[in-house]
# Entry
Amino acid sequence: MKKYSIAMAFALLMGFSGSALAAVVTVTGVGQGFDPLVALDDARVDAQAKCTAQGGTPLQEVFNHITKADIYFASSVWQCDVP
# Structure
């Protein structure tokens, strides 16, 4: 009976794919510039770079924000699928 339960547990573990064990994490990027679109683009690139640095794949942008001071400050929040 013990060998049967060990074999069953091993079979269940082998059934999981790599994507089932992956985690979705949140990464944030920041950017700044004299043009709001440039600042937002820099923030998106920064967030995607942080995702790929972890070995992940950017899934989608969750939130972004642009603030005007002397220059534009932007932030971008992304969901990232990390194995």
Summary: The CA atoms of residues 32 and 39 lie 4 Å apart.
